Task: structure prediction
Amino acid sequence: MTSTGLDKGALTPAQFLEIDSAASVVRGGGGPSAEALLHLAIVNGVGAGAVLHTHSVWSTVLSGSHALHGGIALEGYEMLKGLEGVRTHKHREWLPILENSQDMVELGARVSQTLEADRGIHGFLLKEHGLYTWGVGLREAKRHVEILEFLMEVLVRSGAAQSA
Ligand SMILES: [Zn+2]
Result:
């Protein structure tokens, strides 16, 4: 994973570090992100090869306004087909919303529970914090960021988020 506090758009190979299953740095400099335990929970829970996390405006807005529903249902959008394994716009994608926390051990356990309970999801939101998504590799994970961010923006801009 990447060291903490870097511009993620301008990473060099030296800014990646290797961590073990307890989030201790094995190789590389700098400290891992505070959320390393969440990345590990996802790697272990769904066998992801790459995990990406964003702090976007849309994920912050939607995860706040929909927290009481426990998640957001995305349905009817052609762009859903950009998610791995989805073949039709009629697919119903559930994007769970988890209460945010600074206790990564506790939050990591809730992430594991969510991945266990909601099999087949492509991502989840932390309330008023951001999006987590993943893929078999970096290319797929990046595509999932783009698709989910697109759909969240559409939901807010179209006003559909009010009635969803
Ligand atoms: Zn974060």
Summary: Residues 96 and 124 are 5 Å apart (CA to CA). The mean pLDDT is 92. The two ends are 35 Å apart (CA to CA).
